[in-house]
């Protein structure tokens, strides 16, 4: 998910059909699938649009990530081998400190996802992964809100998590991941993930 289309962006079937060089039938089916996943809204006489997203949706998604990813980091600290740790370090190096173009933002977002995916993969819990994937589908849609300084901060947080994983310190890895996800919510939106919007 690259956040190239902002919430509310129209998704006209004819234009998508021409761009993708397919008939309207698979386009219509794909839009229905995206609608069922909450990513697209389809309304009579208005057609399909990228679904709107609220701060409350984002807060709830970050809360799920905070709870689940911290536990997976704790488990990963006990099982990650040297090869997996090296991949984590390589993912950190891909993170742009302050991406200044849309392409650089997408590249940094992919590196961030790669970092978290490696930890999730190491923890090896399919149900937890599905919960995180669902939550990240929401947080990724809000990626265009990210202030530039957030990337350099995130990079340092990733380094600290990597150190805890290398030391096989489960509790520190859990705490650092919890703080990292909470900081992402707070710095992007001025929200603590445990606060209700408007509170």
Low-confidence stretches: 195-199
CATH class of the largest domain: Mainly Alpha
Shape: elongated
How many DSSP-defined strands?
2
What helical percentage do the residues reach? 55-70%
What oligomeric state do these chains adopt? single chain
- How many helices in DSSP terms? 8
Architecture (CATH level 2) name of the largest domain:
Up-down Bundle
Strand/helix succession: HHEEHHHHHH
The domain tally reads 2
* Named CATH topology of the largest domain: Four Helix Bundle (Hemerythrin (Met), subunit A)
CATH superfamily of the largest domain: GntR ligand-binding domain-like
Account of the 3D structure:
- Helix content is 68%, strand content 4%.
- With 199 residues, the protein is mainly alpha-helical.
- It folds into two domains: 13-50, Winged helix-like DNA-binding domain superfamily/Winged helix DNA-binding domain (Arc Repressor Mutant, subunit A); 55-189, Up-down Bundle (Four Helix Bundle (Hemerythrin (Met), subunit A)).
- Strands 1-2 form a two-stranded antiparallel ribbon.
- A hairpin with a 3-residue loop joins strand 1 (40-43) and strand 2 (47-50).
- It is elongated, with a radius of gyration of 18 Å.
- Mean pLDDT is 84; it is low at 195-199.
């Amino acid at each position: 998910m690259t956040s190239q289309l902002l919430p509310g962006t129209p998704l006209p079937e004819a234009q998508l059909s021409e761009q993708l060089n397919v008939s309207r039938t698979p386009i219509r089916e794909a839009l229905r699938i995206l609608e069922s996943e909450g990513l697209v809204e389809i309304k009579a006489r208005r057609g399909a649009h990228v679904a709107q997203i609220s701060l409350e949706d984002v807060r709830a998604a970050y809360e799920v990530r905070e709870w689940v990813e911290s536990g997976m980091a704790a488990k990963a600290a006990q099982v990650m081998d040297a090869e997996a740790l090296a991949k984590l370090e390589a993912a950190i190096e891909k993170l742009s400190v302050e991406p200044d173009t849309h392409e650089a933002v997408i590249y940094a977002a992919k590196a961030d996802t790669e970092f978290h995916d490696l930890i999730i993969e190491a923890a090896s819990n399919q149900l937890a992964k599905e919960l995180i994937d669902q939550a990240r589908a929401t947080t990724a849609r809000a990626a265009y809100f990210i202030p530039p300084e957030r990337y350099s901060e995130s990079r340092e947080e990733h380094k600290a998590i990597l150190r805890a994983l290398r030391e096989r310190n489960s509790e520190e890895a859990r705490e650092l991941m919890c703080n990292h996800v909470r900081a992402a919510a707070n710095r992007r939106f001025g929200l603590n993930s445990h606060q209700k919007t408007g509170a």
